[in-house]
Amino acid sequence: MKRLIAIAAAGCVLLTAGCGQRAPSADEGGGAGGPSSFAERAVPAPAPGEPTAGPDGAALPAPGGPAPLSADGRTSGTQPNAAAPVPTPAPAPAQSVPAPEPAKPNAKAEKPRQRGPAKPEPKAPAVSVQKSQSSAAKKLSLSELRAKYPEAFKVSGASKERNVALTFDDGPDDRFTPQVLDVLKAHGVKATFFLLGKRAEEHPDIVRRIVREGHAIGNHSYRHPQFPKLTVDQFAQEIEQTEEVLNRLTGYRPKLLRPPYGAIDEEQLQWAKSRGYMIVNWNVDSLDWKNLGEQQVSGNILGHAKAGSIVLQHSAGGDKQDLSGTVKALPGIIAKLREQGYGLVTVPELLHLSKSK
Ligand SMILES: [Zn+2]
């Protein structure tokens, strides 16, 4: 008993930290005050070890409801999953993501047992097969998923072509997204915006402007939940609801899908793949969600960009999140990359894909 109590107490401490951050955020974000929460999260999140799944997986709030938009920031923290994160060595992080889910290991052992007895023969119907696959899927890290589904999950383009794709998540908003668009327009750069369905509904004119000015758009979920914490049905609803909004506003259904925090499990990936989506994360993280200044944002990008890179930045965040560093750094980043001979293209161009499904 004492042990349990002690453990519970420890858990509370950890949860408290996480909850505190979230509390303000999520759901509210969904409503009107939501944004503020974002900021909080991003800020508090521990910078150094973040990449470790710890933050993303564990801390985030429940699915659906809460909209941890700032999450992306975390996403950035999560980057490692995506590919070769800026800060920490890549390999470890990816694994960390799956790690958070304590039940997995047990699940593996348990499922076999339960099913073994219940079902007479190994040659089970399709249903059983799917279940076993889904359970196994949860075990795979993002890097393992990319390796298993290279045709459906990308973090970069071909290294032979000297192109780089700038991407901006969590918009649209009427605060930073217009500023990002102004800079891109002034420099003749086409980028890719991964939009939240809820925010798209709130700022339809900004969505139309993004498309009108030649940028590509992608589906970034409706409320920015952690996909691995959702059932496939909940996951599908997030995607389809957003797709409907974007189709209504732009006239097409985006092929690109970027999971919040870059996190997705195998069953969800299979669903997305079967519906014609291409999962696109990143391999260069600006970490701009941490309210970094111009030079830091610029350094994080220019220090890691290479041929085929997909760069993660944000065009919207919480009320307390200051993305002015991204806006200010953008002209210099564009100039430097071009000076180095890189072409700045949209993700569909980088990956030679159609923008629509
Ligand atoms: Zn995001």
From TrEMBL:
PANTHER family with a match to the protein in the record: CHITIN DEACETYLASE 1-RELATED, GLYCOSYL TRANSFERASE-RELATED
Biased composition (Low complexity): 50-73, 126-137
Cleaved signal peptide residues: 1-22
UniProt-annotated stretches for the region Disordered: 23-137
Keyword Nucleotidyltransferase: no
InterPro entries membership: Glyco_hydro/deAcase_b/a-brl, NODB_dom, Polysacc_deacetylase_ArnD
Organism of derivation: Paenibacillus flagellatus
Full protein name: Polysaccharide deacetylase family protein
Record carries keyword Kinase: no
Skewed-composition ranges (Basic and acidic residues): 107-122
